[in-house]
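Is this the right way to post structure tokens for a design question? Let me know if I should format differently. Anyway, here goes:
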């Protein structure tokens, strides 16, 4: 199959076929989520919970929960198999208000086999400051399945992890006064001086005055009072849909495991000659059994016989790639060699080592 079928000609952002909204290029200062984590218990499992002898922390949290509910289990010998200790994680979106609901992810930390059909008991979720910002509870939707018999077991997906849509309710808000900002920084997700300069110019054109200034390749600062907007939110709402044509570095990304090659449009190759061929080593064992003559004394002997050889496939010849070649010309020239994507990765590495590939080369 031709290399062109394997090469994804991904342009560096879609700006070359159309401009991109500002909100898709930058992050606004202060508009970010906050990570939450909690330690809880999933109950109601069908015998797939933690083995309490191997997971003593499950028994400890179960005892604490029962004691808070007025059930004294100290000194009791109970080892149910329908409970599992889990870690609950979530992201508190920006400007979340008390009473709003967020999704949570539940993951087993013991030796539970599956969380299918389980229910998460009320679990507080803490942020990095140690404060509780949400409380999670609900039925776990696991993303896998398990079928098990006496001598075989089949697992599809990951049944020890699941989600609870809208499973946590926000109990505390992040103390952040967005409307009180007088300076707002726009952080570029892909820092680039050209893109930052275009953002600065576009914002200034929108307000017909110099309200934005580029601080570096990754930061553009917006002066809120100079925009004469009613609030910071009004100013952001006015600029977030401005269309910008972003720039990015010439880049080649290869994945050796799958043989995927991704090249940006600005990739250039200097004049270079490429030749590619393969060697095949072949070793065959064909032993021969030697029998003694009839009525003669002796034993059968196995005589080893080995056939070894090295075959060289017919090379693709010497193909010359002209100077300042564009992406389409590079792909056409490499297709002419008839090499596989994995061989193509080795060729690109060699071209880069020769100093003829003018792009950032990333191997994954």
């Amino acid at each position: 199959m031709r290399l062109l079928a394997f090469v994804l000609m991904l342009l560096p952002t879609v700006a070359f076929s159309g401009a991109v909204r500002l909100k898709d290029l930058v992050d606004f200062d202060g508009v970010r989520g906050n990570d939450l984590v909690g330690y809880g218990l999933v109950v109601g499992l069908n015998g797939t919970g933690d083995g309490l002898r191997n997971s003593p922390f499950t028994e400890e949290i179960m005892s604490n929960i029962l004691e808070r509910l007025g059930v004294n289990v100290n000194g009791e010998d109970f080892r149910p198999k329908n409970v599992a200790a889990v870690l609950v994680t979530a992201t508190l979106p920006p400007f979340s208000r008390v009473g709003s609901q967020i999704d949570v992810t539940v993951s087993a930390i013991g030796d539970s086999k599956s969380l299918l059909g389980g229910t998460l008991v009320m679990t507080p979720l803490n942020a990095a400051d140690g404060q509780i910002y949400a409380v999670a509870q609900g039925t776990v939707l696991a993303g896998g399945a398990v079928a098990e018999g006496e001598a075989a077991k089949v697992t599809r997906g990951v049944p020890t992890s699941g989600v609870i849509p809208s499973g946590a309710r926000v109990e505390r808000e992040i103390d952040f006064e967005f409307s009180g900002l007088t300076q707002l920084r726009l952080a570029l997700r892909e820092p680039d001086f050209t893109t930052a300069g275009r953002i600065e110019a576009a914002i200034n054109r929108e307000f017909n005055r110099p309200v934005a200034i580029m601080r570096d390749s990754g930061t553009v600062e917006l002066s809120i009072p100079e925009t004469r907007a009613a609030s910071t939110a009004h100013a952001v709402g006015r600029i977030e849909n401005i269309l910008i044509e972003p720039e990015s570095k010439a880049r080649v990304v290869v994945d050796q495991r799958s043989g995927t090659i991704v090249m940006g449009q600005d990739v250039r190759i200097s004049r270079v000659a490429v030749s590619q061929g393969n060697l095949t080593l072949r070793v065959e064992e064909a032993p021969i059994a030697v029998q003694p003559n009839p009525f003669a004394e002796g034993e059968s002997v196995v005589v080893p016989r080995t056939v070894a050889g090295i075959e060289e496939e017919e090379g693709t010849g010497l193909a010359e790639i002209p100077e300042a070649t564009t992406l389409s010309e590079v792909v056409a020239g490499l297709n002419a060699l008839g090499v596989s994507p994995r061989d193509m990765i080795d060729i690109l590495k060699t071209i880069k080592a020769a100093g003829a590939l003018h792009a950032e080369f990333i191997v994954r």
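Format looks fine. Someone answered above. Worth noting: The two ends are 23 Å apart (CA to CA). Helices lie at 56-68, 193-207, 224-227, 232-239, 327-337, 341-353.
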